[in-house]
Amino acid sequence: xxxxxxxxxxxxxxxxxxxxxxxxxxxxxxxxxxxxxxxxxxxxxxxxxxxxxxxxxxxxxxxxxxxxxxxxxxxxxxxxxxxxxxxxxxxxxxxxxxxxxxxxxxxxxxxxxxxxxxxxxxxxxxxxxxxxxxxxxxxxxxxxxxxxxxxxxxxxxxxxxxxxxxxxxxxxxxxxxxxxxxxxxxxxxxxxxxxxxxxxxxxxxxxxxxxxxxxxxxxxxxxxxxxxxxxxxxxxxxx
Length: 239
Hints:
By secondary structure, the chain is α+β, with helices and mostly antiparallel strands. It is 26% helix and 33% strand. Strands 5-4-8-9-10-7-6 form a 7-stranded antiparallel beta sheet, with helices on one face.
């Protein structure tokens, strides 16, 4: 299916079908239907569609970590960090460790250890060029999440890195986050997804292993060797 994006007309007339996939087929090319999709480009149009935010949703935004934010971060073993490069190309990367692996240094500053990975350094490379970032913290069993937006610096200061050591291994760098916006996000997304329900977990046998996936995608390596490399990395390169 080839999708044609059409900017929504800039008019105050209400368009009840806006943001819906129009079912009008333009023509058939190579057996795939081509369709037109309305695209919203004007912030005023967007606000017409969604209405004004509630007062509570605006007032909940903080600029400092209060006791609830600190307690949530201390219990969080997992977060996602979003960044972008100067061209606007975005990246989202998972970060995980034992609860409390992210430390609150003061009312507006976090430090996130950068553990061993694949050395692509996508996030850190982005932050060096464009320091804006967004974080979302998860706590297993809790449907609400904590969002932190701000600016980042990359540090190799031993005084900051040494307290972050695990099994005697100090991270090579860490991300210092100066928070600008801090707020709890309601649990609707996790409730709808039923994310923490153990009965919804996929049996591991129902999806290919990373070793098999990479062998298929990259080629030139057997599944067995690819599995061995993955297992070795998990065993020897967590920290």
